[in-house]
Automatic annotation (TrEMBL):
Record keywords: Membrane, Transmembrane, Transmembrane helix
Cited Pfam families: EAL, GGDEF, MHYT
EAL domain location: 417-670
Protein name, entry field: Bifunctional diguanylate cyclase/phosphodiesterase
Residue intervals of the GGDEF domain: 277-408
Record PROSITE patterns: EAL, GGDEF, MHYT
Sequence intervals crossing the membrane: 6-28, 40-65, 71-93, 105-128, 140-160, 172-197, 217-240
PANTHER family: BIOFILM ARCHITECTURE MAINTENANCE PROTEIN MBAA, DIGUANYLATE CYCLASE DGCP
Superkingdom of origin organism: Bacteria
Domain annotation MHYT: ranges: 5-197
InterPro entries xrefs: Biofilm_reg_signaling (IPR052155), EAL_dom (IPR001633), EAL_sf (IPR035919), GGDEF_dom (IPR000160), MHYT_dom (IPR005330), Nucleotide_cyclase (IPR029787), Rev_trsase/Diguanyl_cyclase (IPR043128)
One GO location term (cellular component): membrane
């Protein structure tokens, strides 16, 4: 017995298959991006969409097929077919969930989904109740199973392809159409395999139109419910995209605080010209946060930022708090004036410097805070943020762990700084630098003991710029790296030239910034300078400061060992004034300790005298050469010489000089056992302390 199709309902079944396929592909992205319980929820939702979609398409196709006999359906078996399809989809999606899906995962997942489609289809057919028999053509049955497996593999392939894309696209719609065609192809091939046979002489074989309509109505209600489930889950996905994802876009992922985009919204909506237009901004930046990342790793850095965010939220629970990025936070105090802002800044400084216990480590950190006030410092977001940021940097310059309120002088200073930064880039390109050399003197032998090369900048408009002003800018911007390469080459060239002119060979030292070590270019710099000038490596010395010990000390030691193998000498500059680590001192490949001028200047103080003596004793026990910096009087020279530190550097023996003045100094030093050189402008005055 053969029936006839209602082609409008066939078209409807195809549309349902396409729509459910598209919804499943969209939910694939939700399943992939979610974690934990959320991922399980989206996995169940995706399985329901796929299962209900295929099942609804199947029964719409069944309703589209009209027989001349009355057909009813067993409710239990009908819903069992739906359960088969949902369960098969869940297993298939679960198997193909890992980030890297192997071929066997795809094969097993496709088999389960294909088997589920076959089970759903033929279980649904078994739910049919009629007076007659139902058999299947083996060839068409096998073909329908093959199409089901093929459709399943295609569906899973497309599921994997689109699981990283949640947005609509033409490719996704085309893929949904392909999946819909495959699903419909399996269904109608399976229908083709059916063979109905009936006995028309039996009573009750003629369909009762009222009964038939009731059965179809019940099936339509069930199918409509399945489609409603698909629509509901798809609507929830859209809601998630538009609401929850929107919330995530304005929330910092690490701390849970509002982010910069939410801050912009707040300022755009704020009425700066209203009756209560007072506002205070506090720009908060953690001090030496980079050291935490460098020493403990970025994971600890993230934990610290999260803990600071929690502490800020608890302390300022009635204020607008934002994380701007990195270790920067912003707090907006609506209606607050200067006094209230300063009070809150003091509270925050105290709260942040309390210890943080993270994964068994007790960390201490401080912060610097810049404050700007509206309307005093501006009435828009840009002006207030700029003012607060400028004040914060000033707080850092003044020693960190403090707050600073913006004023006009800071703005002028920042404008000059920005101008110098731009000019400094041009200066590196145009080589506007020159070198001064400050000599070192050995008081015990009465001979020169080397010199230190000091970089200076002659600005074409502003004249000589203090190194205290441009060196920090160079370090912050990284320009110190090409500047160091230049001065190293220049110092080696000049030293080689002096030797060729017949002067006694001297060792010239060049200062190194931690940024040079971070660049990993130190060895190349030195090799290029030596090979380019022909200078013997033993006449070049590099000076490091104790501050580098707060960085990657093992990496720095490795680089120092490599240059020491070339014959380069290494000196520890400003010893005693920075991050002294006596436990690591014997591990550092250094040859010289330079006693900081702070102790020399106050040598008459009992404590400073004891420190100087301790440093000299330590240096001798470690077989290190000792140099005292900042020697300006004969009394200081005699004191240091008496303790056993005979090599000295300072204005008493010579100010920084250019290459011509150094030539004269070297010429004079060979004629006198003890020389005092004072340079003032272009004049060079040489005195004999013995006279």
């Amino acid at each position: 017995m053969q029936g006839q199709y209602n082609y409008w309902m066939v078209l409807l079944s195809f549309i349902i298959a396409v729509f459910s396929s598209y919804s499943a592909l969209t939910l694939a992205a939700k399943i992939n991006h979610a974690r934990g319980r959320a991922q399980l929820g989206w996995l169940l939702a995706g399985s329901c969409v796929m299962g209900c979609g295929v099942w609804a398409m199947h029964f719409i196709g069944m309703l589209a097929y009209n027989l001349d006999i009355q057909v009813t359906y067993n409710t239990g078996i009908t819903f069992l077919s739906l359960l088969f399809m949902i369960l098969a989809s869940f297993i298939a999606f679960q198997i193909t969930l890992p980030a890297k899906v192997r071929f066997r995962h795809l094969a097993i997942g496709g088999f389960f989904m294909g088997g589920g489609i076959v089970a759903m289809h033929y279980t649904g057919m078994a739910a049919m109740q009629m007076r007659g028999t139902l058999t299947y053509d083996p060839q068409y049955w096998s073909l329908s199973a093959i199409i089901a497996l093929t459709a399943s593999y295609a569906s899973l392939y497309l599921f994997l392809k689109f699981r990283n894309r949640s947005s609509a696209s033409a490719a996704k719609w085309i893929s949904a159409v392909i999946m819909g065609l495959a699903i419909c192809g399996m269904h109608y091939t399976g229908m083709k395999a059916m063979i109905f046979s009936s006995n028309h002489n039996e009573r009750g074989m003629v369909p009762n139109s009222d009964t038939d309509m009731q059965i179809k109505l019940i099936l339509l209600v069930c199918v409509s419910a399945a489609i409603l489930v698909i629509l509901l889950i798809s609507s929830l996905a859209v809601y998630f995209d538009r609401r929850i994802m929107k919330g995530m876009a304005f929330t910092d992922e690490l701390t849970g605080l509002p982010n910069r985009y939410r801050m912009n919204q707040f300022f755009d909506a704020y009425d700066f010209r209203g009756p209560d237009d007072q506002m205070a901004l506090m720009f908060i930046d953690l001090d030496r946060f980079k050291n935490v990342n460098d020493t403990l790793g970025h994971d600890f850095g993230d934990m610290l930022v999260r803990a600071v965010g929690d502490r800020l939220r608890k302390t300022m629970n009635r204020s607008e708090i934002y994380r701007l990025g990195g270790d920067e936070f912003l707090c907006a105090l609506s209606g607050a004036g200067r006094a209230e802002a300063e009070q809150w800044a003091k509270v925050l400084l105290e709260e942040i410097q309390k210890p943080f216990v993270l994964d068994g480590y007790e960390l201490y950190i401080t912060s610097s805070i810049g404050i700007s006030l509206s309307p005093l410092h501006g009435q828009d977001r840009h002006a207030l943020l700029k003012a607060a940021d400028t004040a914060m940097y000033k707080a850092k310059e003044e020693g960190k762990n403090r707050y600073r309120v913006f004023d006009e002088s800071l703005d002028q200073g920042m404008i000059r700084r920005l101008g110098l930064e731009n000019d400094l880039r041009r200066a590196v390109h145009n080589q506007e630098f020159f070198v001064l050399y400050q000599p070192k003197w050995d008081a015990s032998s009465g001979k020169a003991a080397g010199m230190e090369a000091l970089i200076r900048w002659r600005h074409p408009e502003l004249g000589i710029i203090s190194p205290a002003e441009f060196i920090p800018i160079a370090e912050e911007t990284g320009l110190i790296i090409p500047m160091t390469r230049w001065i190293m080459g220049e110092a080696c060239r000049q030293n080689q030239q002096w030797q060729e002119e017949g002067f006694e060979p001297q060792c010239v030292s060049v200062n190194l910034s931690v940024r040079v070590f971070e660049s990993q270019n130190l060895l190349d710099m030195i090799q290029c300078a030596l090979s380019g000038t022909g200078l013997d490596a033993k006449y070049l010395e590099v000076e490091i400061t104790e501050s580098i010990l707060a960085s990657d000390i093992q990496g720095i030691i490795s680089q120092l060992m490599k240059i020491r193998e070339l014959g380069i000498k290494i000196a520890m500059d400003d010893f005693g004034s920075g991050y002294s680590s006596l436990g690591s001192l014997d591990k550092l490949p250094i040859d010289t300790l330079k006693i900081d001028q702070l102790f020399v200047r106050e040598y008459e103080s009992g404590s400073k005298k004891a420190i100087i003596q301790a440093i000299i004793t330590l240096g001798k026990q470690l077989n290190l050469e000792l140099i005292a910096e900042g020697v300006e009087t004969i009394e200081q020279s005699e004191f240091l010489n008496g303790l056993g530190c005979s090599i000295m550097q300072g204005y008493y023996y010579g100010r920084p000089m250019n290459e011509d003045q150094i030539r004269e100094w070297l010429s004079t030093s060979t004629e006198s056992s003890t020389v005092l050189v004072q340079v003032s402008g272009p004049q060079l005055k040489i005195n004999n302390p013995g006279n």
